[in-house]
Amino acid sequence: xxxxxxxxxxxxxxxxxxxxxxxxxxxxxxxxxxxxxxxxxxxxxxxxxxxxxxxxxxxxxxxxxxxxxxxxxxxxxxxxxxxxxxxxxxxxxxxxxxxxxxxxxxxxxxxxxxxxxxxxxxxxxxxxxxxxxxxxxxxxxxxxxxxxxxxxxxxxxxxxxxxxxxxxxxxxxxxxxxxxxxxxxxxxxxxxxxxxxxxxxxxxxxxxxxxxxxxxxxxxxxxxxx
Length: 226
Prior knowledge:
alpha/beta
């Protein structure tokens, strides 16, 4: 799971990074709202920790802009700020933040809040079984079925389907799929993603079944929740 820290205090970034990496997360960071939006456009993370007071574009405005875009409207966001008034918390939640933490806070509490928000967005996290729509994956037995029909997937298609299902409802770019399924240090051409998605679709969809993988023109793909 990849977390983007958006914070203008280097010491706070390092504190958060240390605790998140220790907990098994991949971490990137931005020091202003403009840089954050650029990084999210390039490679959408699984979670954003967003400071309220930021240079260039405020955290509140960043959150509002994320909620306006189809690709990021369901992106988990936790606001982190020194502003502890109830009106500020309400405002942060009103613009679409999933949770709100006031400084100073316990790193352990933050990690618990992150995991809780991620579970709300994806109840399958941490489970040996993943179920989305009528598709089920058994991660221990390495089996996949759709509406009770067993599917036969190659290793790459299995990893691709798992990556999709763990992020169901989110639009994923080819770059995200390449990094998440093949790895960041492996060179694979973009069209390779399309080839494996065609194979996955062929395995998933029988003659009368709805195609759960939606192509989003000029962006990427989305695995539908319904």
